[in-house]
Amino acid sequence: MNPDTMTNRTFAEIEIGEKASLIRTLKPLDIQLFATLSGDLNPTHLDEKFARQHQAGQRVGHSMWAASLLSGLFGCQLPGPGSVFAAQSFRYLRPVYLNDTLTLTAEATVGGAGILFELAPGLKLTFRDAVRLMIVISDNTATNLVIDRLGADAVNERMDALGFPQTRLMRKVMGGGDSRAGLDPANKRFGLGVSTPREMVTLLERLEKGEIVSKEASAEMIAILKRQQFHDGIGRTLIGVAIANKVGALDRLRSDVAIVYSDRGRIAMAITVDDLPEIVWNAENPGLLMLSRLSLALQSGLAAPP
Fold this sequence. Notes:
The protein has helices at residues 28-38, 43-46, 48-52, 63-76, 127-136, 140-150, 152-162, 180-183, 197-208, 215-226, 286-302; strands spanning 19-25, 101-107, 168-169, 193-194, 242-250, 253-262, 265-273. It is of the alpha+beta class and 306 residues long. Among the domains are: 3-107, Roll (Thiol Ester Dehydrase, Chain A); 207-306, 3-Layer(aba) Sandwich (Beta-lactamase). The chain has a 3-stranded antiparallel sheet with strand order 5-6-7, sandwiched between helices. Strands 1-2 form a two-stranded antiparallel sheet. Strands 3-4 form a two-stranded antiparallel sheet. The longest helix has 17 residues, at 286-302. The protein is elongated. The relative contact order is 0.08. The mean pLDDT is 87.
């Protein structure tokens, strides 16, 4: 890379899924220079005769030489100039021998909620697995995989076909992959997407009636929603009551849509609490407490007479 042509970018300009690679071949001069800089003069790196008697059978490169290449990849390509290398974790699986060629690849992934970003790269998931992770534990990486597979515009076209014109997928989690709706300047204030309580309740009602795709598909979707693991809003104080729900959260917003299977009937509800006065990322968030109280009021007011 030419230092004269390097440019820096903000994190907002880096799209999820963007990749950069660096290819390096280990040469004798690399070993000599790294030994000098690091002070690691272990003869397994520097002395061919000694190294032949070692278990490796020949001279090997310093393990930290390979790890140090990441600094150039991160600092010059992705994220690029201006970034600071904060931490790394790796395991030494095999030696790097003279004239071995290494290919290092960095990929921008999404953190936040979920588990996939904690796992090693290369994991293969079925589409159904990604959908389950997206719903059951709100996995951001899985959500983006699903959006990549379907396409944001295709999702919006399906919402139109189902009669939900106010429900729009704007872009992937943390940005990138904008739909046509997401590119509309009027929608820049929204994050992942936007909907209305009425459309969400109607969607839940039609799922429960088996009217979305097919009875079998609707039943499977409801079953996945019932396994959703976050119940700090709707369902917070309910014990032994089945709930099919999906939560959402921003710094100053909490949202929950659910079917509550109470002993006095099935009740669909969609509640959003916005403009919260402070940012609190725990179960005692005032918005979650309000969601719980409002859901109890709805259950009391909408349930069938005893």
